[in-house]
Design goal:
The complex is a heterodimer of chains A (112) and B (113).
Chain A: E1 10-14, E2 19-24, E3 32-38, E4 45-51, E5 56-58, E6 62-67, E7 72-77, E8 86-92, E9 101-102, E10 106-111
Parallel strand pairs in A: 1-10
Antiparallel strand pairs in A: 2-7, 3-4, 3-8, 5-6, 6-7, 8-9, 8-10
Chain B: E1 4-6, E2 10-13, E3 19-25, E4 31-38, E5 42-49, E6 56-57, E7 64-70, E8 73-78, E9 87-94, E10 103-104, E11 108-112
Parallel strand pairs in B: 2-11
Antiparallel strand pairs in B: 1-3, 3-8, 4-5, 4-9, 5-6, 7-8, 9-10, 9-11
The chains are: A mainly beta (112), B mainly beta (113).
Chain lengths: 112, 113
């Protein structure tokens, strides 16, 4: 999962396996959450979002799960591919609605 | 697709210089943001703007200023660059209203020598 600190959490998975990346968010007032993917040398790319009135949302090969009770967010990637190798981080909107607070990220490496 | 373009991918400047980082978005977004990204610290908000000529301080505005003279363009200014401002700078934009994802440029990696 993500954490504040000097070391980026890492996750290595075999190609074709499913990946689960976790995020603990901090503000119980947050009602909107986003997962971003950041490849080396590029800016963060929007993957999927979820509002607090939902527990689960699915996209293409990705699923986001939200557990408001424990303030936990997860991103599941099905049939992980080498192109999925990147840093993934979550964002929450806090009290303001339009400012976002970002996790430090998890580095996903897909082993061919 | 939303396009956020940052004028430079890499920039090297000297201590004390005035540095301009430029960002342009093509989706008529009302909101624009400047972040810096440092290892282990995630993205930290420097400044943001909800409209032309409007600006708000983020979490770490010290040593920076911004300019938004046109809706599509948001500039970050380092008044007198220092080595601790060496970082990756990311610009983002989104449309008005809550619960709207921010869309990012590819960043400017700035080194202050």
């Amino acid at each position: 999962g993500e954490s504040v600190g000097l070391h980026l959490p890492t996750l290595s998975v075999q190609e074709g396996d499913n990946s689960i990346i976790n995020c603990a968010y901090s503000n119980s007032a947050s009602d909107y959450f986003i997962w971003y993917k950041q490849e080396s040398g590029k800016g963060p790319q929007f993957i999927i979002d979820i509002r607090s009135n939902m527990d689960k949302r699915q996209g293409q090969r990705v699923t986001v799960l939200l557990n408001k009770t424990v303030k936990h967010l997860s991103l599941q990637i099905a049939a992980t591919q080498p192109g999925d190798s990147a840093v993934y981080f979550c964002a929450e909107n806090g009290d303001t609605g339009n400012q976002f607070y970002f996790g430090t990220g998890t580095s996903l490496t897909v082993i061919p | 697709d939303v396009k956020v373009t940052q004028s430079s991918r890499y920039l090297v400047k000297r201590t004390g210089e005035k540095v301009f980082l430029e960002c342009v978005q093509d989706m008529d977004h009302e909101n624009m943001f400047w972040y810096r990204q440092d290892p282990g610290l995630g993205l930290r908000l420097i400044y943001f703007s909800y409209d032309v000529k409007m600006k708000e301080k983020g979490d770490i505005p010290e040593g920076y200023s911004v300019s938004r003279e046109k809706k599509e363009r948001f500039s970050l200014i380092l008044e007198s660059a220092s080595t601790n401002q060496t970082s990756m700078y990311l610009c983002a934009s989104n449309t008005e209203g809550s619960n709207r994802p921010q869309h990012f440029g590819d960043g400017t990696r700035l080194s202050i020598l």
